Amino acid sequence: MYATCKDFDVSFIAVYAWTGIWAGVILIILAVTNASNLMRFFSRFTDDIFAALVSLIFVIEAVRKVGSGLFDDKLGLLDAWFAVLLAAGTCVIAFGLRAAVRIGKKPLPGTPLLMEFAPTLAIVAMTAVAITLWRGQVEGPAVPAAYDVTSTGRPWLVDIMVLPLWIKLVCVLPATFAATLLFLDQNITSRIINESDAPLRKGHGYHLDLLLIGIFTLSFSFFGLPWIVAATVHSVNHLKSLSINDLANPDMPAVAVVETRISALVIHLTIAASLLALQFVAVIPMAVLLGLFVYMGFMSLWGNAFFVRSLSLIVPSMINHGHHGDGQVPRNARNRFTFLQASCLVVLWGVKSSAIGIFFPFFIALCVPVRIFSSRYFHPEHLNHMDDYDHGQSNDF
Predict the structure, then answer these.
(1) What residues does each domain of the chain span?
(2) Tens of pLDDT along the chain (397 residues)?
(3) C-alpha dihedral, 384 to 389 to 390 to 392, nearest 10°
């Protein structure tokens, strides 16, 4: 969109605003017409592919940014390797603290606290290493030097009337793609959380959630703010942080979940409060944050049935750490199902990275007919084991 606006010398921020306005209207219409009921045609097949895609984007983009420093002439070679060390150290510490659940058969003292604050402790530790042990160049996050309304000096409200009428109407087209992506991103993430193996007790609110997303998209667009949905990686990690696990059997599903709104409220209040401490945020090396993204991506992947089945192709014993229904399916059928999901993932990645990326939302939706068509080539019982969230529902379409 930005490149097109630049080529035609059109105000990008105004086009963005109109696209968001139309997308917000479309989402509100979808919410009031209960369009989220269409998600009943989705299954774990699509959920796992989408979650794996988002997680891999986190991991690969973070690794790419850290690795690109090795080929950047503006950054010294030692500084670039130190950035790699910071990112790797952040991952190792976070994973190490997360995995240190037992000595022998007994949990370590303070294990739950270590597991919950593993990422925070990793950030603090590697930031301290960067400050105390390195005198070279360390790139930090870009933070504003002063508290301005906007970084470009424009007013809060976008001047949406600067565009001619025909461009305002044409914005309906990209808005349709944007609304489709927001609809799928929001609802698939909600499905992953609500239909997970975690023993949730409270009901879902797909239609209300989508209505709020539509209102937010509509209102944020007037200010040129980013559109928001339920972030898959963040949501999965949040669910895991609220889950109560049996430390004696860490590979088993959670025994309970603390279902509360307080944690999300505190998280976002803390994000807002960070505006008052930007000088401290600027001290954290960017490589440490990228290492955190790698950690979050892998943590989101762990527990993804498709990811665990993929690992079991190399290490067969890994199937014991995944969705327990997979172990009841013959290896041949399990591998064929995994290859089918992997093929869909490769196609989605290719579309996302190509010139036809604007059609990406529709390729996500195409996973549904692929799953329906695949039922001709798999035994129904095998599909119910691999494509079920352990709630006893049938996956016959």
Answers:
(1) 2-303, 304-397
(2) 888 888 888 999 999 999 999 999 999 999 999 999 998 889 889 999 999 999 999 999 999 999 998 888 788 889 999 999 999 999 999 998 877 655 445 555 666 677 778 899 999 999 999 999 888 888 888 887 777 767 677 888 999 999 999 999 999 999 999 999 999 999 999 888 887 667 677 767 889 999 999 999 999 999 999 998 888 888 888 888 888 776 666 566 677 788 888 988 998 899 888 888 888 888 999 999 999 999 999 988 887 889 988 888 888 777 666 666 677 888 899 999 999 999 999 999 999 888 888 889 899 999 999 999 998 889 888 888 888 654 444 444 3
(3) -60
Residue 338, SS3? helix
Cβ atoms of 186 and 229 closer than 8 Å: yes
CB of 358 closer than 8 Å to CB of 177? yes
Exposure class string for 146-158: b at 16+ Cβ within 10 A, else e: eeeeeeeeeeeeb
Residue with tokens 């058969």: 105
Q: Which of 188, 229, 195 has its CA nearest to residue 23?
A: 229
**Token pair 């030097």 in the structure block, residue:** 145
Whole-prediction pTM value? 0.83
SS3 state at 103: strand
CB crowding 223-250: b at 16 or more within 10 Å, else e: ebbebebbebbebbbbbbebbebeeeee
